[in-house]
């Protein structure tokens, strides 16, 4: 199955806070499942798997997509883990979420699929489109499109706008100024463990 469609709070209880997956907060503290109460020291493999799952669920990508991104990141000069995070952060669905156009990444994906979003004045319906510096993101000049975005923007999910994004609230347009830096990545995880997980495959 390419995308997770099950209970999201169960994933939050197991993996911790994932802002891209859902805005809901679980009242329960223990991990989900019959064995969630048992506290035992996780193995090294379990730790790496958990970090990889955080990436997958937060950005809403399949195992195949994540593996493809890892292979691309290895070819680029620099730290593979940071390059991977930058690639995922620069996806169009995540960029809309970081701008506050949508409360979660799945909601941002729906906006793109329904062709509400323009990149450089052209309709883009591919969620995995990689935003580049100097790209201009705007909304279709339709009342329905703008009303949806304005409704979402009344309740922003993330307070801080990353330094690589520039947003004009009046015109509802955004500009990509550069590549995201590691400190502005919206999820807390150890990307080195993800790279180690795939290096053994």
From TrEMBL:
Q: Please indicate if the UniProt record lists rRNA-binding as a keyword.
A: yes
What SUPFAM superfamilies does this protein map onto?
A: Alpha-L RNA-binding motif
Small ribosomal subunit protein uS4 N-terminal domain: residues covered? 3-89
RNA-binding S4 domain span:
90-154
Query: What keywords sit in the KW lines?
Result: Chloroplast, Plastid, Ribonucleoprotein, Ribosomal protein, RNA-binding, rRNA-binding
Q: Its Gene Ontology biological processes?
A: ribosomal small subunit biogenesis; translation
Question: What GO CC annotations are associated with the protein?
Answer: chloroplast; small ribosomal subunit
Q: Which PROSITE patterns match?
A: RIBOSOMAL_S4, S4
Location in the cell: Plastid, Chloroplast
Coiled-coil annotated spans = none
The keyword Ribonucleoprotein appears for this protein: yes
Tell me, what is one Gene Ontology molecular-function annotation carried by this entry? Answer: structural constituent of ribosome
Show the NCBIfam families listed in the entry: PRK05327.1, rpsD_bact
* Protein task: With S5 and S12 plays an important role in translational accuracy.
Tell me how this protein assembles: Part of the 30S ribosomal subunit. Contacts protein S5. The interaction surface between S4 and S5 is involved in control of translational fidelity.
Q: Which family does it belong to?
A: Belongs to the universal ribosomal protein uS4 family.
Put simply, this protein is called Small ribosomal subunit protein uS4c
